[in-house]
Amino acid sequence: MSTTHHSHEEAVETVRKLIKGIDMAMFTTISAEGLVSRPMKTQEVEFDGDLWFLTKKDTSKFGEILYDPRVNVVYSDKFYVSIRGTAEIVEDVSKKKEFWNAGYEAFLKTGYDDPDVILIKVHAEAAEYWKSGNLAEKAMYMFKRITNQDTDKLNLNQTVELE
């Protein structure tokens, strides 16, 4: 794995391109018992260094974020993208209204102005991504790893710092 050194804007643009169009993510929090992951829908807003999710206070993730705001969000499509960050609970009604749609009304069985409805804002700190690659790329990567050769030039695994 190599760390790619970009400006903040370049790093954000890299992550934006990697996760664009992927609706669902695995959202991982830390509970008193350990790590907990669950699928969550990412808000349809262009990535600018922050990710947004909508949920309710009566969920375990709400308490887990209060317990420890460190989270990880994973996307999978043509790339595997793991985003490490810090979560913040946002209760701004106008912001909730901005993200609200009929699907949430049906799923959460309430409206955006319900005080139990919250937004989770994840400030991304770093993103690591892996290119799915074709079979030849994967074979070359594994061969180089097994024979202790440098795999950085293959660019199958990179990390970008977002802070």
From TrEMBL:
Pfam families associated with the record: Pyrid_ox_like
List residues of the General stress protein FMN-binding split barrel domain.
Answer: 10-149
The entry's protein name is Pyridoxamine 5'-phosphate oxidase family protein
Q: Give the organism the record lists.
A: Paenibacillus tritici
